[in-house]
Design brief:
By secondary structure, this protein is mostly beta strands. Helix content is 7%, strand content 55%. The longest helix has 9 residues, at 146-154.
Length: 258
């Protein structure tokens, strides 16, 4: 089912780093993606994330996310996508971001480097078998990528906001910079995967595209504790709706399983 996992990836994260890395992961999160098929939610994909110290940049961390459709869905639409971000571990400002999309017969890579001294982002965009181009994007202050903004969001002090407050965010998506926001919806006690827990809930403003109509059509549930785990995300898409639920996490703080 086309790009289901990207919906989850925009604000939550997965897969362990390549085996050759010399660093142990700081945190790993694994999600199951579901698609609303009539009255039923059916498993459609997985998203797996891992955060580790960056080998390329001092004082930075590397977050890698891999999303893939389950074998039972591959005959409809096969997805094998990888996102990698190197970002400052304190400010979450990115140094590099790459997205390698393999979706059916569509193969495209996006590789960006952030040059803060020159206030530009350089992009190497490659559609396999079609074209290759270089994009130069004027860098605006406080611009994040898809993954670094996810970790930034987990660090927000939600207790300092009121319900319906808007929290501005700025994101680079496919060579364009968007000024978006997160609407804080308050604290809700929710039953997620059979377990009741208090969660911060918020809704990000989405960019109109191939998956979304745009607007506030996504909700994120983050655990109201010191771990700030994104435990569930749910979104309406152009056809139907999707949901991602945290299966398990492992970090220096401990282990979570649903």
């Amino acid at each position: 089912m086309k790009k289901i996992w990207i919906v989850i990836c925009l604000l939550v994260a997965g897969l362990s780093l390549d085996a050759q890395t010399k660093y142990q992961p700081i945190e790993e999160l694994v999600y199951t993606g579901y698609y609303n098929w009539g009255f039923l939610w059916v498993k459609a994909g997985r998203v797996e994330f891992s955060l580790a110290p960056s080998e390329k940049y001092p004082h930075a961390e590397c977050l890698k996310a891999v999303g893939y459709s389950l074998p039972s869905w591959d005959w409809i639409f096969m997805v094998r996508d990888t996102l990698i971000s190197h970002f400052d571990k304190d400010t979450f400002m990115p140094y590099e971001f790459s997205r390698k999309a393999h979706e059916g017969n569509y193969h495209k890579t996006f590789d960006y480097t952030f040059h803060y001294q020159d206030s530009i982002v350089l992009g190497d965009i490659h559609r396999v078998g079609r074209f290759r181009r270089t994009d130069t994007v004027k860098l605006m202050p406080q611009t994040y990528d898809m993954l670094s903004v996810a970790w930034l969001t987990r660090e927000l002090d939600f207790d300092s906001y009121r319900e319906n407050d808007l929290i501005p965010i700025r994101i680079l998506i496919d060579s364009k910079i968007y000024d978006l926001y997160i609407r804080y919806l308050g604290v809700v006690k929710s039953k997620i995967a059979g377990k009741k827990q208090e969660c911060y809930v918020f809704s990000p403003l989405l960019v109109e595209g191939e998956v979304f109509k745009g607007g506030e059509n996504m909700k994120i549930w983050v655990s109201k504790d010191e771990y700030r785990l994104p435990v569930m995300v749910e979104a309406k898409i152009l056809v139907g709706s999707v949901k991602g639920i945290l299966d398990r996490s492992a970090s220096k703080y401990g282990t979570y399983t649903k």
